[in-house]
């Protein structure tokens, strides 16, 4: 019976046995997800503020949503103050509005419209803020 002679091979003679995935490819894919997760964690404020906490903010600039870091530079001046300098001062009011919407606990002030400088007073980290941070971390981990 020729048709049942070789059930281990398909028509081209290749093995039909299941193969394990390439470990190098799997590890590379996993590292992509780990790096994305690490980047997501950077945007959450811990004890000390970082410029990355502004990374997820999108600004309506030039008629389309634009990442804040594409329209301005964020500098942490002190633990309670961030300063954003807009590359194009004409978008400073849009940046101020985007920060107000994204970070509702802060009140950004347009320091100098001609240079596009915005000062963002940052609240000290309270127990309530730490609890919110824990919730954010739990959401990102899921």
Report on the structure:
- By secondary structure, the protein is α+β, with helices and mostly antiparallel strands.
- The protein is built from 4 helices and 6 strands.
- The protein has helices at 23-42, 68-71, 92-102, 127-141; strands at 58-61, 64-67, 72-78, 81-86, 109-112, 117-121.
- The strands form 2 sheets. Strands 3-4-6-5 form a 4-stranded antiparallel beta sheet. Strands 1-2 form a two-stranded antiparallel ribbon.
- The model is unreliable at 1-10 (pLDDT under 50).
Helical segment tally? 4
Helix content class:
25-40%
Unreliable sequence segments: 1-10
> What structural category do the secondary elements indicate?
alpha+beta
Number of strands: 6
Q: Report the C-alpha radius of gyration, rounded.
A: 25 Å
- First-last Cα distance: 55 Å
**Which overall shape is indicated by the principal axes computed on the Cα atoms?**
elongated
- Biggest β-sheet strands, sense, barrel: 4 strands, antiparallel
Along the chain, the helix and strand elements come as HEEHEEHEEH
Oligomeric category: single chain
Walk across the major sheet and give the strand order: 3-4-6-5
pLDDT averaged residue by residue = 80
Fraction in beta strands? 15-25%
Offer a quick outline of the entry.
With 142 residues, this protein is an alpha+beta fold. 35% of the residues lie in helices and 21% in strands.
Which secondary structure elements does this structure contain, and how are they paired or packed?
Blueprint: H1 23-42, E1 58-61, E2 64-67, H2 68-71, E3 72-78, E4 81-86, H3 92-102, E5 109-112, E6 117-121, H4 127-141
Antiparallel strand pairs: 1-2, 3-4, 4-6, 5-6
């Amino acid at each position: 019976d020729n048709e049942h002679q070789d059930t281990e091979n398909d028509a081209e003679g290749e093995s039909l046995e299941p193969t394990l995935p390439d470990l190098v490819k799997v590890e590379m894919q996993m590292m992509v997800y780990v790096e994305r997760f690490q980047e997501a964690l950077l945007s959450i404020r811990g004890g000390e503020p970082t410029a990355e906490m502004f990374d997820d903010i999108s600004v309506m600039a030039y008629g389309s949503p634009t990442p804040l870091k594409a329209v301005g530079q964020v500098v942490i001046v002190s633990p309670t103050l961030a300063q954003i300098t807009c590359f194009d001062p004409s978008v400073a009011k849009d940046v101020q509005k985007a920060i107000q919407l994204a970070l509702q606990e802060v009140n950004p002030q347009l320091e100098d419209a001609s240079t596009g400088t915005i000062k963002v007073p940052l609240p000290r980290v309270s127990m309530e803020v730490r609890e919110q941070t824990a919730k954010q971390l739990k959401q990102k981990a899921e």
